[in-house]
Amino acid sequence: MIEMNDDELLEALGVEITPIKTISRTPREERILAGFEDVLRFYETHGRPPMHGENRDIFERLYAVRLDQIRKLPEAQALLAEIDAPGLLVGAATPPVEVEDLDEDALLAELGIDDGPTEQNDLTVLRHVRSYTERRAAEEVADRIPCEDFDQFQPLFEQVERELNSGIRKTLRFGRNASIVSGDFFILGGQLAYVAHVGETIKAPNGASDARLRVIYSNGTESNLLRRSLQRALYKDETGRRLTPAPDMGPLFGDVVEPDDVETGTIYVLRSLSEHPFITEHRDLIHKIGVTGGKVETRIAHAEKDSTYLLAGVEVVATYKLHNVNRTRLENIFHRLFGAAQLELTIEDRFGNPVKPREWFLVPLHVIDEAVQHIRDGSITDIVYDPRMAQLTRNQ
């Protein structure tokens, strides 16, 4: 029997040997492809492209900026046509983003602009969109498993996203401060990561100190990795960020007068007289909480013409007098306490533009009264609001 090698045997059988085509992409094309894959994942999750707007999640707004920039690239159509099943590249352009709404570091990173002056600061170059290999390197720091008690952490992620959107928290490049302690929040691989627990200090093979962490991610997974592993992942991730802690509200009352202090302050609680169906159904639960240094009557005099007051009359259901109070800190405390119960309602203003009024909460009046008593006795820092039970509880 004549011995034949593999190629000769295939040729004898009439099987055409076609070399496997390898696709070679430039680093720029890899970044564009990786960036568009993130936008596609958003579309698959939400059934729509990312959009701009103050009421949108900060990550959605960043993806919207990214999609706008990719649409401007001349090579995008040819490069991405095969994976653009939803037709995002030829979709209607979203309204222009208000850049002042976005955190500076996050916007610069999303647009691929470096901090320092350089001739390569071109908006069409998505430098901070990582390649697939780089993303996998960050994700494979440790095996992630489903977080069985994620329901305990989900309110924390929701609160942090609200604080990012309102500017209470900021994002910083990782590296200026490389410490990692329990309670820290980071952005890694495009996801929020929360350090829930730091274990006992151990010695690494090189003699340096380390510790095992329990890290919870906003997608409902967790990992058990070493602190130095997380540090390395954040260093390598060009879009990795540290979130600043929520600022200390500081003392509400004191002897030193500050710019936002009012000699006599009034906390006022309003109930809307709007005929909107949802408000009518839940009128006894929907309240607006505000603070003023003047007369409440003056503040609400033209409520029917002001979208802040839902373009309707209001009734004052409670007022509380406070002396030498810092107005900004007090308002921040109410937003922190009742943020999870904030009214999610969009109405049209007098010009037909959509408006989402703030400072309206689905909170019973007696709970607001109880919160004010905690403010007066200084115990409010130990109190949290449980929207499911509609009651205040002590923070464990």
Topology:
Layout: H1 6-12, H2 27-46, H3 58-72, H4 76-80, H5 104-111, H6 132-139, E1 145-146, H7 154-166, E2 171-173, E3 185-188, E4 191-203, E5 209-217, E6 221-226, H8 227-236, E7 241-243, E8 261-272, H9 277-281, E9 286-292, H10 296-299, E10 314-326, H11 327-338, E11 347-348, E12 354-355, E13 360-362, H12 365-377, E14 383-386, E15 391-394
Antiparallel strand pairs: 1-6, 2-7, 3-4, 3-7, 4-5, 5-6, 8-9, 8-10, 9-13, 11-12, 14-15
Describe this structure in words.
The protein contains twelve helices and 15 strands. It has 396 residues and is of the alpha+beta class. It folds into three domains: 27-111, no CATH class; 145-243, no CATH class; 261-394, no CATH class. The strands form four sheets. Strands 1-6-5-4-3-7-2 form a seven-stranded antiparallel β-sheet, with helices on one face. Strands 10-8-9-13 form a four-stranded antiparallel β-sheet, with helices on one face. Strands 11-12 form a two-stranded antiparallel sheet. Helix 2 crosses helix 3 (58-72) and helix 3 (58-72) packs parallel to helix 5. The longest helix is centred in the N-terminal third of the chain and has 20 residues, at 27-46. The chain is globular and about 100 Å long. The termini are far apart. The model is unreliable at 92-104, 106-128, 132-142 and 248-261 (pLDDT under 50).
